[in-house]
Structure formats: C-alpha cells, structure tokens
Design a protein that fits this description.
Elements: H1 3-34, E1 37-38, E2 47-48, H2 52-59, H3 61-92, H4 97-111, H5 114-124, H6 131-138, H7 150-178, H8 182-190, H9 195-206, H10 208-223, H11 227-232, H12 244-253, H13 258-283
Antiparallel strand pairs: 1-2
Helix pairs in contact: 1-13, 2-13, 3-7, 3-10, 4-7, 7-10, 10-13, 12-13
C-alpha cells in the first residue's frame, strides 16, 4: 500500500476535522484562556488576573443561586420528560391510523422553533389574558402568576421544556420498543408473566440503551437552556429562573465581563463533563446491549 493510499482516508475526513476544530475545539480553549483575564470585550488590553474570576464566581451568591436553579430545572425536566415520554411510547407502540396521528401530533412541538414556542407560552401564561388561567378558572381556581412569581416561574419553564421534549423522546422510545424481538414477549406470555413484571424484567432492561442515550442528551440539553429564559423571564423574577447559560450571556454581552463569563463557561463545561462521566460510569453497567 502506497503512502498516498494510507493518507487518503485522513484527507477525506480532514475538512470535517478542520471545521470541528475551528468552531468547537478552538472556542473551548479560547474560553479557558479568557477565564484568566479581566477584559471588557472592547479594549485591546487584557489584564491577567489568574484565578480571581473563579474565586469571585464561587463567592457570588447570585451564581450559587444560578447553580441551584440549573440543577432543579435539569432534574425536573429530565425526569418528567423521560417518564411521560416512556408512558406515551408504551401506549402508542401499535399500528393504526389513530395512533399514527397521535404520534405526529406529539412530535410536532419538536420541529417548531423554540422562539415561537416561548412566545406562545408567554401568552398562554399571561396572568390577565392567558388561556391557562382561564382554564383553571373554570374549575374554581384563582389566577396564577406563572412567570411573574418566584414560586411558579421555574416550574413554568419546566412545563414548556417538557411539552417540547416529549415528542422526540416518545418516537425514540417507540423505535427502541419496536427493536425488541416479539419472541421475548411470547415467552413471557407462556410463563404467565404479569404486565408489570414483564415491563420491569424484560422491557425496561432491553430498552436501557435507548433510555441511557436519552438521559444523557436530555441532561446536556437542560444545562444549556437559553431561549425560553431569554424570551419569557430574562432570569427573573428575583433571579429565580436564571440558569448557567443565561448567566454567562448576561455577564458577557450585557455587562461586558468577558473573563468572568468565560470562568462561568468553564464551570459549566466541567459540570457537564463530570455528570456525563458519572452517567457513563454508573448507568452503563445497567445498560444491556444485544
């Protein structure tokens, strides 16, 4: 084999590698570099401050609240989305025009722009003219301040995220369910296995690769939430819906504290990386690949 034949595969993938390095790898390292400087994004002078940005970050009560908000948002969003999606998948995993229509209806929010969805839900959750308050008013409940009260604002954003994410996860779960051999359920029926036992002992273990994939992707996506917060709450009220990515945006592009925002970005990178490793270490042992 000639040298050219050995290098040809690398040459064929090199454009993709260059793009990946230019738009993904380089920004990460440049962010880490900027986290050690005090820079206002306008001045050509960058003042080296070492670990001061990280020290200020960890001492900032607002940042600690942002971490708590992000953690709560992620736990609720991932748990509710996966649970509801799995329930829908178990129900819709059958043929028929009705079930096909419901699958399409559930999936439709996934293809709609998150900006459009945020504007729609902002109207639905309006305390005076919103449809949700009109609906709960029919049952005798008073109007709720969905987005304007600290006790309900974060939960309201979770509702929007779950509503948008259910469709995609449901279809992925259905694909995973359809990959399970029917002979497995036939054997369980012959053994007179109860539905809950069949689900717990057969369906869930054989669906574990799909569940593992969706759990990791949902966790990463939840930590990166931005559009709904920027449009619906801007981090308020009283910092109750501010999350890491929006906090980074605020400090970087509103207050022009680029070094401080970069330090927050490094913290986000570390958290997501550590959680992903923990997911793989803990959950991969329970994943059954065929």
């Amino acid at each position: 084999m000639s040298v050219w034949e050995k290098l040809r595969p690398y040459g064929m993938v090199s454009p993709a590698l260059v793009i990946f390095a230019l738009f993904f790898i380089y920004p990460i390292f440049y962010m880490i570099y900027l986290s050690f400087f005090d820079w206002n994004f306008v001045s050509p002078v960058k003042k080296y401050v070492g670990l001061q940005n990280f020290t200020d970050l960890l001492r900032d009560p607002q940042f600690l609240q942002v971490l708590a908000n992000t953690t709560i948002y992620t736990i609720l969003t991932v748990t509710l989305t996966l649970s509801i999606s799995l329930a829908f998948a178990l129900w819709l995993n059958r043929s028929g025009l009705f079930y096909g229509f419901v699958q399409g209806a559930i999936f439709s929010p996934h293809i709609i722009s998150l900006v459009s969805i945020s504007l729609l839900w902002s109207w639905l959750m309006d305390p005076e003219y919103g449809l949700l308050n009109w609906v709960i008013g029919l049952f005798g409940f008073g109007p709720l301040e969905w987005l304007s009260h600290p006790d309900t604002s974060l939960i309201s954003l979770v509702i929007v995220a779950v509503w948008k994410g259910i469709g995609f996860n449901t279809l992925v779960f259905i694909a995973g369910l359809q990959s399970i051999p029917p002979s497995v359920y036939e054997a369980a029926a012959l053994d007179r296995s109860r539905p809950w036992t069949t689900f717990r002992k057969l369906t869930l273990p054989m669906l574990s690769p799909t569940l593992f994939f969706l759990a990791v992707m949902s966790m990463i996506g939840s930590f990166q939430v931005f559009e709904t917060i920027a449009i619906m709450t801007q981090g308020g009220p009283v910092n109750s819906t501010n999350t890491l990515v929006y906090y980074i945006y605020e400090n970087g592009f509103r207050f022009f504290k680029i070094g401080y925002a970069s330090a927050a970005g490094v913290v986000l990178l570390i958290i997501v990386g550590l959680l992903t490793v923990i997911y793989f270490k803990m959950l991969s042992k329970r994943v059954h690949y065929r």
